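Example (one chain per record):
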Amino acid sequence: MSMIPASSNLTYTDADLTPKGFNVYEMSGAVPNLLVSGRRDYYKIVLRTGDMTIFSGDQTIEVKDTYLFFANPHVPHSVVDRSNGEKRYACLFTEAFIAGRERTELLHSSPLFRVDASPVIPLTDEQAVFMTGLFRQMLLVHQGDYARGDDLLKTCLELLLHEALRLQPIQPGLPATNGAARITRLFLELLEGQFPIETSARPLQARTANDFAQRLSVHVNYLNRAVKEVTGKPTSVHIAERVAVEAKALLQHTDWSVADIAYSLGFDYPTYFNNFFKRLTGRIPKTFRKAKV
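Predicted structure:
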């Protein structure tokens, strides 16, 4: 994979996400081209007007005028900014923040998830006005004290994602630019296709890189190399993170016992699940469930 050029500070630091896993910004002024090592556990949507080059995975995209840019935690990206500091908005959120069966499905079918889809959507003046209104609404809610602000923010995000799908429908079968990108897309689709877990009677079948390699009819070393090349993260990390997201959803939104959740996610013993969950979240499942966060 070729080196990615230095990026602007459209990449943020850990401190920019609140404990709830959401933040929204309005920015202005010149943006220097800096090399920034950013987090890869959140999604990002940027509304921007300007002259820029965006490097996302193995794509190089020249953009001008007004557009939406979708940053996917599975795909490394950077930006070269040649504009004069026009006003821009950015929204950052974790998958846990938008968690919920319908919203999660919407997220995964949007341009935010597909590693082979374009991360940029050009906007007309009318579309830009609408999107700007959504971002300003999120800013007002996020900075206010409305008791059900999180619900309203999620509704705004849902509307934004629906509009993105309407403006740029996902085309199934979009050809991958190379073998690594293709096998990575197939792996991520196969991984996501196992969720949501609807019953503990049908536990997760593919839990390891070798499981996925067998289903994709490739050698596990090739799968691991391709996924790491395209996304910057090992296959095992993608699997563990997605299982953890589903575990949180099951703990929050079902009355299943911890043991049933463990078995549904492919763990032979609840103790193994407890250790896995604590390693990824810092809490045991029962403590997480009681906290309701």
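Caption: The CA atoms of residues 190 and 212 lie 8 Å apart.
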